[in-house]
UniProtKB/TrEMBL annotation:
One Pfam family cited in the UniProt record for this chain: AAA_5
Stated name of the protein: MoxR family ATPase
SUPFAM superfamilies, per the entry: P-loop containing nucleoside triphosphate hydrolases (SSF52540)
Domain of life: Bacteria
């Protein structure tokens, strides 16, 4: 699969994977593919950052390689490790057999059979289908030393393994970096990338997403769900619901055979959209009814 040759083609390709992509996002994705630059996506939780990489890999028919970041992630877990237990077994076996050729054993122990490839190395391996999509997810969870390391890895796409030599990617992978912005990612890394802030979708786009992800939901219920969630996001909440929550909620309501929203059904299913007790408590009593009224008013033709 060739990379799409226009912004429209990018939107179409992602759309075919059930990913609703606006013009602005389509543009940075197109540029990132065309210029071969990593794409840095920041945004709230559950707004479709991770999903872009999945849809892109599926649309391009490329392999998706995911590096999930976490506190304490280091180069060896990200690039490669030697399979130490297997090496130990091989050494013991050789010892038991007696008269082992030490040099041959040494070469074998630090050869491909004992190498565990982690995502960054995997992403540099040639692939018949074309360079893979490398998703570096939630970069803000790692620390600065790892970021510095990553910066270097992203600049030349090669890894040097002392025992094996340098491995270089024949074609650089398509890189998507995401962050939930729990801390600022360093400028040096951002500078290498194209940047896009993934915001909560507006009403129409969220309807389109819901339609793509939960097509079984009737239009009338979907409209109320989306209008209510949009209204909820204007409230001062500890954690606003993302798109993922909208989809979950619609599915919960479907499972309960709800045909429209009511304060009672909202109270019963609030756990699908709000995940903090303080936020849930705010919506007790008449609050849910008030928000529902506002949501319905927003649906009425002006
Ligand atoms: N534009 C979209 N088109 C289709 N589905 C979407 C879109 N945005 C979000 N979704 C849906 O929302 C879900 C959550 O998206 P995703 O996991 O990508 O969010 P995220 O931004 O990575 O969140 P987090 O920060 O929590 O990891 C996806 O499984 C997908 O079904
Ligand atoms: Mg994510």
């Amino acid at each position: 699969m060739q990379i799409p040759n226009s912004i429209d083609a990018v939107q179409e390709m992602l759309g075919a994977q059930g990913y609703v992509c606006g013009r602005a996002l389509g543009t940075v994705v197109y540029l990132s593919l065309t210029l071969g630059r990593p794409l840095f996506l920041e945004g709230e939780a559950g707004v479709g950052k991770t999903e872009i990489a999945k849809a892109l890999a599926a649309g391009l028919n490329r392999r998706l390689i995911r590096l999930q970041c976490y506190e304490g992630l280091d180069a060896s877990s990200a690039v490669y490790e030697w399979n130490f237990p297997a090496q130990m077994v091989a050494i013991r076996t050789a010892e038991a057999g007696g008269g082992a050729d030490r040099d041959a054993l040494q070469r074998e122990l630090f050869g491909p059979d004992y190498l565990i490839e982690r995502p960054l190395l995997q992403a540099m391996r040639p692939d018949d289908r074309g360079a893979p999509v490398l998703l570096i997810d939630e970069l803000d969870r790692t620390d600065e030393p790892f970021e510095a390391f990553l910066l270097e890895a992203l600049s030349d796409f090669q890894v040097t393994i002392p025992e094996l030599g340098t491995i270089a990617a024949p074609e650089p992978p398509v890189v998507i970096v995401t962050s939930n912005r729990t801390r600022e990612v360093h400028d040096a890394l951002k500078r290498r990338c194209l940047y896009h802030w993934v915001d909560y979708p507006d009403f129409d786009r969220e309807m389109a997403i819901l339609h793509a992800r939960a097509p079984e939901a009737a239009a009338a219920l979907s409209r109320e769900v989306v209008a209510f969630v949009q209204q909820l996001r204007t409230e001062d909440l500890f954690k606003k619901p993302g798109v993922a929550e909208t989809i979950d909620w619609a599915k919960c309501l479907l499972a309960l055979d709800a045909i429209d929203l009511s304060p009672e059904v909202i109270a019963d299913t609030l756990g699908a959209i709000l995940k903090y007790q303080d936020d849930i408590a705010r919506l007790q009593g008449s609050e849910a009814a008030r928000l529902l009224d506002q949501a319905r008013a927003s649906l009425e033709p002006a």
